[in-house]
Amino acid sequence: MMKLNLRWLCCAVVIAALCSPAALGQRRRTVVVRRPHTTLVVHTGHPIRRALPAAVVVHPARTAIVVRAPLVFLPALAWTAAVVSLPPRERLVWQDTEAISKDEGWVDTSFGIDGTGDALYLDINGKAKLNFAEVTFANGHVQVVDFNEKTHKTGIYKLLDFRDDRHVMTVRILTKSESDATRLAVYLGK
User: Fold this and answer.
1) Cα-flanking dihedrals φ and ψ of residue 5, to 5°?
2) Is residue 4 included in any domain, yes or no?
3) CA–CA separation, 166 vs 168, rounded Å?
4) Which residues pair with 3 in a beta bridge?
5) CA-based diameter of the chain, in Å?
6) In a domain, 107, yes or no
7) How far apart are CA 158 and CA 83, in angstroms?
8) Residue 90 — pLDDT band, cuts 50, 70, 90?
9) CB-CB contact of 124 with 182 (8 Å)
10) CA distances from residue 142 to 17, 55, 168, 170 in whole angstroms, order as listed
11) Sign of CA dihedral 69, 73, 75, 81
């Protein structure tokens, strides 16, 4: 009986060793992609005059959009955070998301929209400190929305409301995740 138990124990050890993830070459590895920090670039005429972060991580737009008109900065708008609900799905003409991790620090992220609508919405999933947003229109006008480096929690906010349909080319947001990971989504409504 002792020999039989010893054999079963030896078989169990051999099977466990052969079927372990390490033996099968299935090691789990965490891959951390570190993006280099770079100097924040703001164009001449940018209306925000406070000290901005010196170093940022740049997340480029997935869709590159070229604005053919010369850029003209409009006076900055102070943003009032008010949680809203998104319009019905059939009234949303464009959307995109961006994930930001806490270890990146300040992130300069851009969304290439190239679409016409009457309102922009910002969906924050997590906790984010927002600095400013630049909304560039097809005619070259750039509307800067000043978040004043305030922290905002999960919710859907109206980023900018237009009086009439406007052709939005890009949205650029300077933000910093205050939770382990934050997901930003921008929507263009009509």
Assistant:
1) -65, -40
2) no
3) 6
4) none
5) 90
6) yes
7) 7
8) very high
9) yes
10) 63, 23, 10, 9
11) positive
Range of the domain at 137: 31-189
What 8-state DSSP symbol labels residue 25?
Answer: T
Separation of alpha carbons 114 and 84, rounded Å: 24
Instruction: Collapse the DSSP code of 11 into the 3-class scheme (helix H, G, I; strand E, B; otherwise coil) and give the result.
Output: helix
- Please check whether residue 20 lies inside any domain of the structure: no
pLDDT over 80 at 13, yes or no: no
Q: Structurally, how many domains does the chain consist of? A: 1
- Examine residue 3 and state whether it is found in any structural domain, yes or no: no
CB atoms within 10 A of CB 101: 17
Token pair listed for 11: 């078989």
Q: Which residues of 122-135 are buried (b: 16+ CB within 10 A; e: fewer)?
A: bbbbbbbbbbbbbb
Cα 28–Cα 102–Cα 136 angle in degrees, nearest 5:
120
Q: Mean pLDDT over all residues of the chain? A: 87
Strand extents, DSSP E, 80-154: 92-101, 106-125, 128-137, 141-152
Q: ∠ at Cα 99 (94, 103), nearest 5°?
A: 155
Q: Sorting pLDDT into bands at 50, 70 and 90, what band is 37? A: confident
Whose tokens are 């124990």? That residue is 9
Q: Is the pLDDT of residue 145 over 90?
A: yes
Return the higher-pLDDT residue of 110 and 5. 110
